[in-house]
Amino acid sequence: QVRLVESGGGLVQAGGSLRLSCAASGRTFSTYAMGWFRQPPGKEREFVAAINWSGGSTYYGDSVKGRFTISRDNAKNTVYLQMNSLKPEDTAVYYCARRNYSNTGSRPDDYGYWGQGTQVTVSS
Question: What is the pLDDT of residues 47-101, one digit of tens each?
Fold first, then answer.
């Protein structure tokens, strides 16, 4: 069983930064791609970013390109999301997920394990 635990969410002013972390249990972390999704209030869940098994390939949603950076530390079983230049529209619950494959992708159905989410609120 894989357990994913997000941390690092909170309240920040527009233009500020936050770094989310996602700690994974299990010994197969380095085999799979990881991703971040978010769900704004009253809206559908949307793809934010993904990283392949080695960290050598990343993929971003259009709304966060150039502002967010995904990274991973396989020795620590942890994936990160550095969020800069935050905007009020980035307000959402952010979820970490483990993809069923080693390469990146944005389809939620391709992710088999999900964390409980962490709230990010950006004030204007």
Answer: 999 999 999 999 999 999 999 999 999 999 999 999 999 999 999 999 999 999 9
Q: Tokens standing for 109?
A: 């159905």
Query: 92, 40 in Cβ contact below 8 A?
Result: yes
Distance CA 35, CA 97 (A): 5
Cα of first residue to Cα of last residue in the chain, in angstroms, is 40
Give the DSSP letter string of 52-107: -TTSS-EEE-TTTTTTEEEEEETTTTEEEEEE-S--GGG-EEEEEEEESSSS----
Q: What is the pLDDT of residue 27?
A: 85
How far apart (Å, rounded) are the C-alpha atoms in residues 46 and 62?
11
